[in-house]
Every structure is written in structure tokens, then in C-alpha cells.
Amino acid sequence: MGRSSIDLYANEIGAAFVDIESFAAYVGGSPTNIAVGARRLGLRTALLTAVGADPVGDFVLRFLEREGVDTNYVPRKPAARTSAVVLGIEPPDRFPLVFYRDNAADMQLTIDDVLAAPIDRCRALEVSGTGLSREPSRSATMFAVERARAAGATVYFDLDFRADQWHDARAFGVSVRALLPLVDVAIGTEEEVMAAMLTDPEQLRIVDAQVSAPTIDGDVEADIEAMLAAPWAPRALVVKRGERGATIHVPGERVVLAPGFPVEVHNVLGAGDAFAAGLVYGRTKGWDWFRSARMGNACGAIVVTRHGCANFMGYEDEVLGFVEGRGGW
After folding, report:
1. 215-216 and 154-158 strand pairing
2. CA-based angle 312:50:301, to the nearest 5?
3. Does residue 96 belong to any structural domain of this protein?
4. Number of domains in the chain
5. Residue 197: in which H helix or E strand, if any?
6. Which residue in 110, 90, 66 sits closest to 13, CA to CA?
7. Which end of the chain is less congested by CB atoms within 10 angstroms, N or C?
8. Contact between 195 and 166 (Cβ < 8 Å)
9. Structure letter (DSSP) for residue 85
10. HSE-CB of 55 using CA atoms within 13 angstroms
């Protein structure tokens, strides 16, 4: 559940944003990427997003239908627009992106839209932090989580911190902490974990459009410890650590380290969503934390060697072969 968009990726790899001459059109948005990634791995997925009554919405829905993602519960919002993202690719560490989300249709999701979706029949629900950034999406997201938990589903919460989508970066942490008690598995980068615990605005030094993540001054390990010790702690916290892999933190248990897979980076955007798809796949199949996170790491490693996000997610046989070809689990 959450945002969707048309993603325009620069075709000129390494070019400064002002020198880009052409773009390739793909589909994106963190929950949308995860839905496609999980479907390619063999899970049955439905997406609860919203699109405008516009050709861009047609573009997004057509792709999802071809991928086999259930779009029967995606409402059209005639007074809003399907969102867009424009992205540059300057490896290894510069990936400028610009969001066009004024009056975004997916932020108009309502409680009624949630009631129309099959959340009470799913085994897992994944929601994202951006969905909490304004109403009516905030209430709809929280209601969806309540409904999923009542049905016995596993709730995954991608922290998904996009600073420019919030009126105050500290409001992100307030909203995240309000939802975490209902969450089974929270997933975030080191920067997102720190953002969830942010109270001092000066810690957020800059949100640079030339990188894919904010720069936050802080101690991520201390923030992880504080989050897990809080009365509103999630049941598990998965921290994505880039090329170092991922760590899984369950209160009262030893930390699980799942190493990453070394590859040559082409584009890091979408790697975290591919990771989440692999993690959900593994946990849904009953795998332990280590193997599930390694599956996520493999999905992420494959995507970073490619041009875009949803359109380039790995398939089940491909990812399993990738793991086996690099020493297995």
C-alpha cells in the first residue's frame, strides 16, 4: 500500500542533470516496486495505490497488469494526478531525483479505499512512511495496518523517509513512532532509522538532491538500541546497510548479520525496494531471518546493476541462481 509513479530515468549515464538529453519511462514508487518484485519472485500480490484519471495512470496500471500484480483495488482520483519522478544516474554515489507529487493521487487514499481492498485476506501487508505524511493517506494507512493485524497478517513497514514530503523532518519520526507498536517488521536504512528518532533539526544537515539519502548527524547504533528499548518498539527491525548487507534486530535476541553480495553498481535507486521484496518472500515462505535477508540482499544486488526499479526486478529462478553462483546461503 502506498505511492506509485511514472519514473523517468536518464539515458545518459554519468551525465550531469543539466546535460541529460533523454529519459526512459518506467514505473516506480516504493510500495509499487515491492509489489512487482514480490510478484516476480512468485508471490501473489495486490497493490493499493491510487492514480489520476490521466494517461500516466493508464501507463502505470498497464505495466502492473502485465506483471500480474492485482490492480482491481486501485481507485482513480479524478481531482488528483498520478505522480512522477525524474532521475539522473551518476554512479557511484550521485543519483539526483526530483519528485512531482503536488496533489498526488496516492495521497488521496481513504479509509473507504482500504475497506474495498482484500487486506483481511492477505498474509502480509507492506506500508510506507511517505503514506503517513498527510491526510487522508495517513489515516488510511494506519487503518489498513489495524485491519491487517486483526486478520493475523504480518505487517511490514518501510520507513521510506523522503524529507521533502514532510513539512518538518521531525514530524516523520512522530508519525513513525505512532505506528511502530502495530508493526511486525520495520525496514529502513541507517539514515531512516536516525530520521525516525530525530528531535534536533540541526542533526539533519542537508537534503542533497545529488545523493539518494539525507545526511543526518547521529549515532545509528544508539538510535537502534533506543528504538528497540522503547515501549513502542516494533517486533523486529531490519536495517539496510548498503554493500555491507543488512542486520536484523529482535528485542531480546542476538543481532543477525546477513552479508551483501559485491557487484558493480550502475544505479542504487530501487535496491532497498528489491531487498524488501526478497525479505517478504523469504519470511512468507517460512525462512529464517538470515536466509530471508540474504535473499533480499541478492534481489538488491541484481537491481543495482540495472537501469531502473520495478521494470528490472529479478525473477525467482534468477535470484536463486545468483545466490547459488556466489556460494549459496
Report:
1. unpaired
2. 20
3. yes
4. 1
5. none
6. 90
7. C
8. no
9. E
10. 0
Grid coordinates in use for 316? 525467482
* Pairing mode, strands 124-128 and 154-158: parallel
The torsion angles phi and psi of 268, rounded to 5 degrees, stand at -80, -15
> Which amino acid does the sequence have at 256?
V
22 falls within a domain: yes
Burial 281-299 (b: 16+ CB within 10 A, else e): bbbbeebebbbbbbbbbbb
CB 183 within 8 A of CB 233: no
pLDDT per 10-residue tile (average), the chain, 329 residues: 97 95 97 98 98 98 98 98 96 90 97 97 98 98 98 98 91 97 97 90 56 68 96 97 95 96 92 98 98 98 95 98 93
Q: Say what the pLDDT of residue 201 is.
A: 64
> Residue 131 is part of a domain; what is its CATH number?
3.40.1190.20
As given in the structure block, the three cell numbers for residue 296 are 533480499
At residue 152, the 3 state secondary structure works out as coil
How many Å apart are CA 52 and CA 4, to the nearest integer? 11
Question: How far from 56 is each of 5, 31, 47, 82, CA to CA, in Å?
Answer: 8, 17, 17, 6
Element (H, E) at 122: none
| 212 domain-assigned | yes
Residue type, 285: K
pLDDT of residue 172: 96
CA angle 55, 2, 154 (to 5 degrees): 145
Q: Which residues contact 130 (CB under 8 A, 6 or more apart)?
A: 2, 3, 30, 160, 162, 165
Domain residues for the domain of 51 are 5-324
> Would you say residue 329 lies in a domain?
no
Q: Which residues of 188-224 are buried (b: 16+ CB within 10 A; e: fewer)?
A: bbbbbbbbbbbeeeebbeeeeeebbbbebebebeebb
With a CB cutoff of 8 Å and minimum separation 6, the contacts of 234 are 157, 180, 181, 183, 184, 185, 186, 227
DSSP state of 79: T
Q: Which of 170, 166, 182, 63 is nearest to 107 (CA)?
A: 166
